[in-house]
Design a protein that fits this description.
The protein has 89 residues and is an alpha+beta fold. The protein has three helices and five strands. The strands form two sheets. The chain has a three-stranded antiparallel sheet with strand order 2-3-5, with no helix packed on it. A two-stranded antiparallel sheet has the order 1-4. A hairpin with a 2-residue loop joins strand 2 and strand 3. About 6% of the residues have low confidence.
């Protein structure tokens, strides 16, 4: 196991990213790093699109003010193209 794989494994074990995110990063050599945990400054409904650090995320679980926002737990990374494609399907 190389250093990159060990680092990804530690992030998964710490709950900082999902196994799917780690696999995507490992398989293509790049991927997109998951967001660091953030605290919500407003309420967010399921399906709402939010941006954090310039990346687009879709809310998967209701988030209340003061709750932690974390990829894999209550938001999933998405793209504009993916959201547009979902509208046409």
């Amino acid at each position: 196991m190389n250093a990159r794989s060990r680092a990804l494994s530690r992030l998964v074990k710490a709950g900082r990213m999902t196994q799917d995110e780690a696999s995507a990063i490992a398989s293509n050599g790049a991927g997109v790093a998951p967001i660091e945990q953030h605290t919500a400054t407003s309420n967010h409904a399921v399906g709402e699109l939010i941006t954090i650090d310039g990346m687009l995320y879709k809310v998967t679980t209701v988030i209340a003010i003061g709750e932690t926002i974390a990829a894999g737990s209550n938001v999933a990374q998405t793209t504009i193209a993916a959201e547009l494609a979902a509208l046409t399907n």
